[in-house]
């Protein structure tokens, strides 16, 4: 069995729409705009890899040690330079991402659980998966 734990940007929506959907807990529309699922459906990447059904809320970005999503903006380095030179401020909004994903690949695997963990130690919520695995056991070769 091979597994992959990765970070992948989720949302292809505008920031204001993303914020509204998160506040409304409308996970279905967020998933319809999920970039990783889009890549899977087009067969562009991760051939042979699978991901279980996502039934949990986005796992990033929270205020640390809380259940409140962080809804803010991030000023990138180039914008900071521009702001200093021209007296303006250009902010790039943070999009909500479902950063924590588990992909798997292999025969005889059945994912039976895929969920987020309720740890509040950082701005992420980790995810976990449980699998049933079938193994082919042979005693050796016959002559």
Automatic annotation (TrEMBL):
Which Pfam families has this protein been placed in?
Answer: Exo_endo_phos2
Gene3D superfamilies assigned: Endonuclease/exonuclease/phosphatase
The chain positions of domain Inositol polyphosphate-related phosphatase read 11-129
Give the Gene Ontology MF terms in alphabetical order: inositol-polyphosphate 5-phosphatase activity; phosphatidylinositol-3,4,5-trisphosphate 5-phosphatase activity; phosphatidylinositol-4,5-bisphosphate 5-phosphatase activity
Sections of the chain in a coiled coil: none
Task: Give GO terms for biological process.
Answer: phosphatidylinositol dephosphorylation
Q: Which family does it belong to?
A: Belongs to the inositol polyphosphate 5-phosphatase family.
From the Swiss-Prot or TrEMBL record, give the protein name: Inositol polyphosphate-related phosphatase domain-containing protein
This protein's species is Eleusine coracana subsp. coracana
């Amino acid at each position: 069995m091979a597994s992959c734990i990765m970070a992948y940007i989720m949302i292809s929506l505008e920031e204001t729409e993303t914020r509204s959907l998160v506040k409304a807990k409308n996970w279905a529309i967020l998933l319809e705009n999920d970039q990783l699922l889009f890549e899977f459906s087009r067969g562009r990447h991760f051939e042979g890899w699978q991901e279980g059904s996502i039934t949990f809320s986005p796992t990033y970005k929270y205020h640390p040690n809380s259940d409140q999503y962080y809804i803010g903006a991030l000023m990138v380095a180039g914008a900071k330079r521009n702001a200093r030179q021209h007296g303006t401020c250009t902010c790039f909004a943070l999009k909500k991402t479902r950063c924590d994903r588990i992909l798997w690949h292999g025969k005889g695997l059945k994912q039976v659980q895929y969920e987020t963990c309720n740890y509040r130690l950082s701005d992420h919520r980790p995810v976990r998966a449980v699998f049933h695995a079938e193994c082919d056991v042979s005693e050796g070769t016959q002559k």
